[in-house]
Amino acid sequence: MSSRLASPEDYSKLVNSFDTWLFDCDGVLWRGDHVIDGVVEVLEMLRRRNKKVIFVTNNATKSRKSYKTKFDQLGIEAHVDEIYGSAYAAAVYISSILQLPKHKKVYVVGQSGLEEELRDEGIQYLGGTDPADNTLEPFDLSTFTLDPDVAAVVCGLDTQINYTKLSKAFQYLIRNPGCHFIATNEDSTYPTSAGLLPGAGSISSPLRYSLGKSPVCTGKPASTMLDCVKAKVHFDPQRTIMVGDRLNTDILFGQNGGLTTLLVFTGITTEVEITGPEPSPIIPDFHTQGLGDFRIVERTP
Amino acid sequence: MSSRLASPEDYSKLVNSFDTWLFDCDGVLWRGDHVIDGVVEVLEMLRRRNKKVIFVTNNATKSRKSYKTKFDQLGIEAHVDEIYGSAYAAAVYISSILQLPKHKKVYVVGQSGLEEELRDEGIQYLGGTDPADNTLEPFDLSTFTLDPDVAAVVCGLDTQINYTKLSKAFQYLIRNPGCHFIATNEDSTYPTSAGLLPGAGSISSPLRYSLGKSPVCTGKPASTMLDCVKAKVHFDPQRTIMVGDRLNTDILFGQNGGLTTLLVFTGITTEVEITGPEPSPIIPDFHTQGLGDFRIVERTP
């Protein structure tokens, strides 16, 4: 059962118990282009108390650098080395875990943020934002030639999704059974300030469906992202808390990594999903309305 | 266990045992734009013997009328009232089973063949081939207004699939829980003469994934298509055979309808899938290399 934070002491106790704070972004810090109330003050309070602050996001449309720009625009303090995105995790997975030889390439179903992270890891890629693949013209399989160096297909959220990209990715995967199939994340929906849209998992789903095969996922709840964090930052899981708005990504990610978890209701999940008559099988350790609730700590002696 | 047709007597016996012959098209009669060897002669032989010939296809990109044109171009005799497509089945399902009131509309993720069948059934629709929805421009949810008359989303194979269409369909389904979610068919792949491409099931899969909800499917193996045939043609299931190249659509469709089934290997399925060490759970009554094998009947006294 999840504990609802209520008294000033509840919040203070949590702040005192954890040295490292991992935050999901969409639905926790902001929603679309709007900062969630109180978030800036709470992050400042944690920094003043020398807490390590880390941002773990499944959004693979942005590189860490462009994420930093988003934090800046919204007036939230963040540093590139505090940001871990699923596009970065995919690039690290390809370069460090798969150790793809340098002459091999990746076919990208995704946007420029994913391309940027691949480039930064020295990975060659095709597809992605290439105008030739961003078209609604008919795809002619009979004139398509496979690049023999493509050894992986990586999918992220791609709002330029089309049949040419899907067909090329499908060819690489079906004709070469050794070709790796990677998804940055499997979020079903994508929150914007105007509401939900289909998420990254829905972009890889046509391939999953047509191939009858699941991708390796590098985003939450998979532990690949936490492996990336661990490789760069030292933290004690006993004194680390994961704050998120989604049960099946953020909270499960924290649980998979042996972290304490805190759910907020400023994003996807509603309170009834954990306290109602048919609660989710994934229950956080703690829950509160929003991150802004922690402002009470400042007002407490 | 499936019986392999081998001797002239096997083929003659089958021809004599069945009055109504249902055929899948892609992979049985043709592959892409090439007629499969012997098909024209065998269909002529069946017609000469007064067999009822019916074509049941999951391809929802073509209306029955444009299917007829394809038969004509390939030199295969067929009549519009012998052709049953999944787009037609979807239109009949909406008008006759759901009985959608005339002022209600359908949002289409699909091509002109599906639109034509809806129009012929007097169903109003949005989306589909509308240029406004066939774009790779960013989709702006904040300026999108739901048409309150949309009461169903219908998905077929759509090689113009894009994020705007998916997002609109998603909005209709998520904001109105009573909105019907229909797929013409759930084929994982789509056969062309140059090879396989992602099929209609992969076009509806982003919605299935993002909504966590399955569509009602009107194509094979669902019985909706056979209900359409039954409404128009009298046949005795005991003396009816379904000929197809796919186990999980054609053969299962025949079995669901209580028909005898015959598998051919000119399409998707290979012989090892039914006779190998790990056979499919879906086994036809009979199998033969291709429909052209029945030419032997003509040569038999």
TrEMBL record, chains A, B:
Pfam families cross-referenced by the UniProt entry: Hydrolase_6, Hydrolase_like
Cofactor binding comment, as recorded: Divalent metal ions. Mg(2+) is the most effective.
Annotated Gene Ontology cellular component terms: cytoplasm
Catalytic residue list: 24 (nucleophile), 26 (proton donor)
Sites where the protein binds substrate: 220
Cofactor(s) the protein requires to work: Mg(2+)
Transit peptide listed as a keyword: no
DNA repair as UniProt keyword: no
UniProt binding sites for Mg(2+): 24, 26, 245
GO molecular function: alkaline phosphatase activity; metal ion binding; phosphoglycolate phosphatase activity
InterPro entries on file: HAD-like_sf, HAD-SF_hydro_IIA, HAD_sf, PGP_euk
Enzyme Commission number(s) from the entry: 3.1.3.41
UniProt keyword annotations, A-Z: Hydrolase, Magnesium, Metal-binding
Catalytic activity: 4-nitrophenyl phosphate + H2O = 4-nitrophenol + phosphate + H(+)
PANTHER family reported in the protein's UniProt record: 4-NITROPHENYLPHOSPHATASE-RELATED, HALOACID DEHALOGENASE-LIKE HYDROLASE DOMAIN-CONTAINING PROTEIN 2
Protein name per Swiss-Prot or TrEMBL: 4-nitrophenylphosphatase
Origin species: Pholiota conissans
